[in-house]
Amino acid sequence: LVAHQSQLDRGRRQRSYAERCVETYSRNARGLIMAMTLNDDQNMLRDSARDFMASEAPVTHFRKFRDMGCKDGFSHGLWKQFAEMGFTGILIPEADGGMGMGQIEAGIVLEEIGRNLSPSPFLTTSVAAVEALKLADKAMRDRWFPGILAGETVIGIAIEEGVKHRPENIACVATRSGNGFKLTGQKQFVVQGASSDMLIVAARTAGAAGETDGLTLFAVDKDAAGLSMEAARLVDSAVAAHVKLDGVQVDADAIIGEVDGGWSVLSKMLDAGRVGAAAEMVGVGTGAMDLTFDYLKTRKQFDRVIGEFQALQHRASHLYSEVEIARAATIKAQQLLDGGSAHADLMASVAKAKVAKTARLAVQEGVQMHGGIGMTDEYDIGLYMKRDRAL
User: Fold this and answer.
1) Could you write out the three-class secondary structure of 100-119?
2) pLDDT confidence tier of residue 378, bands split at 50, 70 and 90
3) Residues 270, 274: Cα–Cα separation, whole Å
4) Which H or E run contains 350?
5) In whole angstroms, how large is the CA radius of gyration of the chain?
6) Residue 287 is inside which H or E element, if any?
7) C-alpha–C-alpha distance, residues 170 and 212, integer Å
């Protein structure tokens, strides 16, 4: 009896300690504990997006635009179909005519885009650009949101200036001129830049390269005097542009946010872009994985389906687990962005890093398990590898 009582007391102490740990964690991480699953409405959106992409923008659609050498790299007709489905306005607030949804819903669409390699400006225009424009004044929102909602407007993000992603190193200069600014500098690899109606340009109005203070974001029309572009095709056949700004004059109403305070807007835009890219890469990894698993179930060697070989089963199981973890990390980042958490920027980077590693594993395993034929253009697995690299 004494021993039994002692055991009960020890159990109570352990339970009390565990309860205190849970209470402390809950207090310190309030709002971070959420189920990383989709609700009924989100599942309906996923089913709708999956059916739409599979029927209207499958891999064969991508091959068509790649092989025809389309100057834009995507179909403007398909972009209007995106609008008809309501996809283009997912992140636009209801007050501005949009759906007023969040990053989770945008990520659902992006995952299906990645799964089918559907070429579209959804990531740059409906995710990154919209996130920045939500912080603009009403006049600018009224100017650009209707076109995005209708699938008629494409927006490019002109940030990069070097070979590595270092947004704080922006050297493009904006000097005061009249009632506005004059932009001078260069931007590289502006995705869909040549087919954009407007560019969101990050320029330095104060400070020096390497500083986050002194940056300002501008909305620059494609027809602005002094703006020139040179098309560049990316490894996944998407079309980007190298942009030169030679004294481009913009009015003060072209400013997104505050003068010298563009870093906060830029950070929100980039976080949305990172999480969006992660969601699309989850789709790329899932699409590559599905192709590979189907191949394992049909390809025979030594009169056996190769999926019966234990070594390949182990690799397939490991890949499946990694993809599920990557999806969970992405959903967590989406939840934190939607909830305005102080941890959102960190989790956005975590998701992007984790998914990039996982998608690379998926496409590499896909090519290896397909064998030599996986290196040919006849099979789609190589296309997934190229999209992964670009993202």
Assistant:
1) CCCHHHHHHHHHHHHHHCCC
2) confident
3) 6
4) helix 344-370
5) 24
6) helix 262-298
7) 9
